[in-house]
Amino acid sequence: MVSDIVPMEQVSSMVSNGGGSVTMQRDDEYRNRIMKNTQAKHSHGFLYSDEEISDKASTCGKLLIFLSVALVIMTLPFSLFVCFKVVQEYERAVIFRLGRLMQGGAKGPGIFFILPCIDSYARVDLRTRTYDVPPQEVLTKDSVTVSVDAVVYYRVSNATVSIANVENAHHSTRLLAQTTLRNTMGTRHLHEILSERMTISGTMQVQLDEATDAWGIKVERVEIKDVRLPVQLQRAMAAEAEAAREARAKVIAAEGEQKASRALREASEVIGDSPAALQLRYLQTLNTISAEKNSTIVFPLPIDLITYFLKTSEATTQQNAAAAAAAQQQMQMQQQQMQMQQQQFQQQQAQLPLQIQQQPQQLQLQQPLALTPQQQQPPTVPQQQQQYQQTQQISSAM
User: How far is CA 344 from the centre of its chain?
Assistant: First the structure.
């Protein structure tokens, strides 16, 4: 019956902060389960009252402590090698006496004293540890499979909580880092993962720090180490980047040609204003070629020697242009005259049928006045032929 009572008393003391300055937090479900077990045992008569439990536990503990101290005194000075322990500057010692945390929290750095047989302690390293998260195959939000690995820097901020609240704080933190990396990358697009690594690292650090605070772990830094893409996706992205660079290079080349053409136009205007500038440019070119220490010799031709030829060529070109303009004018005048003649001829052809129709009518009107009654007889065939010939001669004459 005592063996059943002591563990329940230890649990109740831990829940009620019987360890002094260190507070052991338990959730409501765990408390309810403990209360149910307590009620079940109390219903069967296996449980004493709290006052009896505390009195018996304190009495038993005092007796064990007295025996341990007596053993230390009897085995002096050999017991000192067992009772005195030393921890380094970066370490802390969490001491349990009869299964309970000692008052004052973790011990160290330096020397501390424990009682044999009833005290046990655990060393906790407070230095920053590095965990290389293995590559995780992640499916991004835009359905692209990538392999991501990271580095997590963390340390133990509370040695007592890291021992009492979790079985293995380091292993738990590493597993949580892997799951957090997968969850964070699964909610991002590929372009966000490639371009916003600092933001993703900060988000992961906040999430890990909040989750490991109850374990006494402080996450100091999270860094995305590498993002590996599939080979086909790498080729597609490389082709896209190459096309973008070629387009940008063409635009830059076109802008350079435009600026160069403007500069050449300004240079031609300067040379046109002062012909001596061209001679200076020849001399500058000769100086540049001679600086390269080669065997090429350039003799610039003076512009004055060819000015006469330039002037004569300009005069001949002007004369040719004037002659061409005069010939063009003559051609235009001849074409106009031809058009006028054609118009006149067309008008004459249009008036000819009217004159032919009017002449027979005039003849008919004149015949009754000049003919005698004997001549009013119908003409014979020879007479009709003569009249027809006469009309044709008139029409041809017109």
Answer: 81
Neighbours of 315 (CB within 10 A): 10
Q: Are 127 and 189 in contact (CB under 8 A)?
A: no
Out of 35-49, 78-92, 128-142, 377-391, least confident range: 35-49
pLDDT band for position 31 (50/70/90)?
A: very low
Q: Where are the beta strands (DSSP E) in the chain?
A: 84-87, 91-97, 100-101, 110-113, 119-125, 129-139, 145-156, 217-228
Residue 221: how many other CB atoms lie within 10 Å? 14
- pLDDT tens digit sequence for 157-201: 999 999 988 989 999 999 999 999 999 999 999 888 988 899 999
3-state SS string for 98-150: CCEECCCCCECCEEEECCCCCEEEEEEECCCEEEEEEEEEEECCCCCEEEEEE
Q: What angle do CA 107, 109, 115 make, to 5 degrees?
A: 45
Contact between 105 and 160 under an 8 Å Cβ cutoff? The reply is: yes
**If pLDDT is split at 50, 70 and 90, which confidence band does 281 have?**
confident
Which residue has 């040379």 as its token pair?
Answer: 271
The dihedral sign for the CA sequence 6, 12, 14, 20: negative
Q: Is 361 exposed, middle or buried (0-12, 13-18, 19+ CB in 10 A)?
A: exposed
Cα separation, 28 vs 321, whole angstroms? 110
Whether 121 contacts 115, CB under 8 Å? no
The 10 Å Cβ neighbour count of residue 255 is: 10
Own/partner contacts of 3-10, CB < 8 Å, gap of 24 or more, are 4/41, 4/46, 4/47, 5/47, 5/48, 5/53, 5/56, 6/57, 8/34, 8/37, 8/38, 8/41, 8/47, 8/53, 9/53, 9/54, 9/57, 10/99, 10/100
Q: How confident is the model at residue 118 (pLDDT cuts 50, 70, 90)?
A: confident
Check whether 109 has a pLDDT greater than 70. yes
